[in-house]
Amino acid sequence: MSDTLETLSAAEIGRRVRAKDLSPTESVRAALDRIETRNPSLNAFVHVDPEGALAAAKRLEERIARGEDVGPLAGVPVAMKDLFNTYPGWPSTLGGIRALQGLPQKSASYFPRKMEEAGAIVVGATNSPVFGFRGTCDNPVHGPTRNPFDPARNSGGSSGGSAAAVADGMVPIGGATDGGGSIRIPSAWCNTFGFQPSYGRVPSAAAQQNAFELTNFAYTGAITRTVEDGALALQTLMAFDPAELFSLPADIDLPGAKSRSMAGVRIGFTPDLGIYPVNREIAEHVHDAVSALATLGAEIVPIEVQLPSHRALTELWCRLVGMRMAGAIERFKRNGLDLARDHGAELPEQIWMWVDRANALTELDVRQDQLTRTAAFDGLQRALLSVDIIACPTVACLPVENGPHGETLGPDRIDEVEVDPLIGWCLTYLTNLTGNPAASLPAGLVGGLPIGLQLIGRRLDDARLMGACAAFERVRPWAQHYDICQRRRL
Fold first, then answer.
1. What is the rounded distance in angstroms from the CA atom of residue 39 to the CA atom of residue 454?
2. How far is Cα 6 from Cα 216, in angstroms, rounded to an integer?
3. Rg (CA), the chain
4. Of 93, 175, 199, 246, which one has the fewest beta carbons inside 10 Å?
């Protein structure tokens, strides 16, 4: 690919801006031009702030002229996800809740604030499903985000707007959250890199609401085209927060992990984590992809993972997220916005179904769910006793076709096995139950569409996992596949 602003990594933009070879205004203008040209065909961005972004770029130029330290992401245009994120004056619709559209925010949430502290310029917000409660990206307000490799298909969710924007070259870093695979699912479908760190590496807004959270672990992170950019973004986001129960020290060097040796690293491959139906062609391609790490000295071995049933874990995840959504809806009600009474028809029916089930849970039900979650935790940790990393597909199927406005779902069957169309076709939500770090890397194309390799690491072993991701990128690079998006635009 040619060395244009469209193809520059975030790390390279930062280096050029700090060296005064590229101005922040040039970088931001190029991103805004790309968004204006390409977003209509993909629907990745749901809000763009050209005036604010250019004003921020100008302020950054003034700081550079004064010789100030402007940070490793100086002048890098980034996107914020429209889910659990806010920015002054911008709408925040929690993934397309119509009742929230006209309520501009007064403060910046954690992701845009940390990005700006590192010198980045936040140019807009990207699409997400309502409450992030599905593995596709679509909602009744903004509609589906289309896949850069085939606009008839979906980008994946819930961070699908960010993944599509990054894959299509609009911005090099897309903000993302992950409550069931929302960083990794769209990364698999859009040929991007997504890393979900160990729980506690990045402060969590949800944890501030309920320190002893019993629901799924939700993470803040980023989607990028390169491992280097992913490591740089996460290093920017990591911080220890003494007010958070599960917060971890930010004492690891993720960018430095890219030089780690793979010699002697044991990688256990499973085509299905023992319980998921997976398209056979995808499983075979993923196995072939991860086997390339053997050329760097890694040992690839088969592994079995003992987990509760696929259905049990899928329904557990839905109930846990239902509890979280029920809590959010109750908080809105206390603050004067009764979504159930006044806007019930505006939210997808699947949300109300699982909120109702969550509200009907007994104390015994909650206890049983935590026992099932513990069994999943124990099964994954036991499997990781014999290997350093587990490798498997990220998603069990190829990107699905977009449905009617707000109604796109995943498949209800994989190879004739029934799965929940919300999330049951994703091999990702396991680590949202356990807290282990996990990443999705582009594993190639099947029928011209991207698929993902998921790597799962031991708890707190984020640096080793990031090193494996960097090693995989060296032996199985994926940048050349972005040319397909480029040709589609011509």
1. 28
2. 36
3. 21
4. 246
Active-site entry in 27, 128, 155, 158 = 158
List 27, 81, 198, 258, catalytic entry: 81
Q: Is 247 a catalytic residue?
A: no
Torsion on CA atoms 182, 228, 265, 437, rounded to nearest 10: -30
In the residue annotation, 41 being an active-site residue is answered as no
Q: What is the pLDDT along the chain (490 residues), one digit of tens a residue?
A: 335 788 899 999 999 999 999 999 999 999 999 999 999 999 999 999 999 999 999 999 999 999 999 999 999 999 999 999 999 999 999 999 999 998 899 999 999 999 999 999 999 999 999 999 999 999 999 999 999 999 999 999 999 999 999 999 999 999 999 999 999 999 999 999 999 999 999 997 655 567 777 789 999 999 999 999 999 999 999 999 998 889 999 999 999 999 999 999 999 999 999 999 999 999 999 999 999 999 999 999 999 999 999 999 999 999 999 999 999 999 999 999 999 999 999 999 999 999 999 999 999 999 999 999 999 999 999 999 999 999 999 999 999 999 998 999 999 999 999 999 999 999 999 999 999 999 999 999 999 999 999 999 999 999 999 999 999 999 999 999 998 877 766 5
- Phi and psi at residue 66, to the nearest 5°: -85, 0
20 is catalytic: no
Nearest-angstrom CA–CA distance, 192 and 13? 18
Q: Of the residues 159, 162, 182, 204, which is catalytic?
A: 182
pTM over 0.85: yes
